[in-house]
Amino acid sequence: FISRSPVRLPPAGSRWPILNRLESLTKGKAILYRVYQKQLSDNKPYLLRGIFGDSIVLPPSMLEWLVSQPESHLSAKSAQMDALNIPLTFLRAEIGLNPVHEPLIRRNLTAHLDQITSHIWDEVGLVLEELWGQDTEVWREVNLDYTIRHVVARASNRVFVGGELCRNNDYIESSLRYVSRVSACGLLLNFFPSWLRHYLGVLFQIPIRVAYSQCSKHLLPIFSELTGSEAASCTHLFSSWLVNNSKKYPLSSLERTPDYLSRRIMALNFASIHTTTLTTCNLLLDIFSDRTTASLLRDESLVSSASWNTTWNRGRLNQMLRLDSALRESLRLWGLVAKAMSRKVMQPAGIILPSGQRLLQGTTVCVSGWGLHHDENVHQQPFEFIHDRFMRRSTHGASPSQEETEMGTSAGHAAAETDVNFAAWGIGKHACPGRFFAVDLIKIILIHVLVDYEVELLGERPENMWIEYNVIPPPATTVSIRRRKLSV
Ligand code: HEM
Question: What family does the database annotate (predicted)?
Fold first, then answer.
């Protein structure tokens, strides 16, 4: 039986929409988990009301169906554009509507990771030294979110725009301001009805415009130079791939101007800085809350340093199976996808779910990523951080082959792998294209911290914060650190 009319779905929390929205502010985790548990037995979709908008949570059994739907039926792009009001906050809708930077991330960035590993290694070392210092005697208290955010911004921009600009403080500070203003304004606009957002958007855009103009002061000359030359030469920089490929992709002449190309770099900054910072902070908090884990991971880093010396490539990073597993485990516990794989119904006639219910055009659907990642039928002790949970074959006997190591594909699950029980990167064709870069960058940051610094163990893992259905490490968390003495 297929229902042709939209069906009223059971609400995920209280029956009163307003109470439900307010509840979502503080009880997002509980609501998502409860819905998931109910869905394991009743297999029904639920209506999830939130302060930033409503969506339908599909049962885990419909995950594969969700992934298999074409973009013309269930659109990931439109859901992303709506969630952050991208046409208003990115200032130019084309950047979101025509995301040519995505194939460049998939092809060029991922293909060049081997060559850029050593640049990222150097940059992370430099910026950590600036922010965490070189004093081997005195302990100092550093704010984790602030310092890691700067490390991520510098190292990412080393690859996006090169060594000179990434070390320009004004550019990095303006980029960080741009990124946080886009997220804050994008989310805040969701408080208002859609007809009002367009008008309010003009006001909300002012601080974003100011931050962008501060960034573009630095970016425009780079793109003017690159677009003026025959072929942008540097093969390791995203900005040159963008210019070299701008004729290949369907870009209007306007979109090929330095201004639009600069805006694409800011879109990359937006995609990479928050996500990578929060993931790195979560991992650091997980590791430094447990003495044994911290010491096992440090030992692994030291063994790697002893056998690879100064060589930095992906083979080296992929061999650090313990660190790889710890990262995947931290993403499982705290992944930014508590509400995962949001998609918007595009067809005017709506869409019919496998359960026979019809959802109207414009509805947003998702799955409970939090439930999926904490399902005890899939993961034993799902609320515990077990750093070697995903450790691959070499520890259980056979060593992975050289090829498997280099590809990061030896049996088990590598941190960047997607699968139906792991939604931290999304699943299917919209799975995060920057995940291979992000994983390498996070590992490099961790190795620097483990080898170069002493970090005082945290008494217990600081509680993460829930803001509606989003979970983040507490931004005020500090850790006590000092530089390690060089062992002679
Ligand atoms: C630890 C860091 C990161 C996490 C946890 C993360 C997570 C995600 C997730 C969950 C999605 C949505 C997938 C979906 O809807 O199915 C996504 C999409 C995306 N991410 Fe990442 N990401 C990270 C880093 C990055 C970096 C460094 C870049 C760029 C270099 C990037 C670029 C993108 C882009 C362009 C998309 C949109 C893909 C599409 O819609 O087809 N991400 N990411």
Answer: Belongs to the cytochrome P450 family.
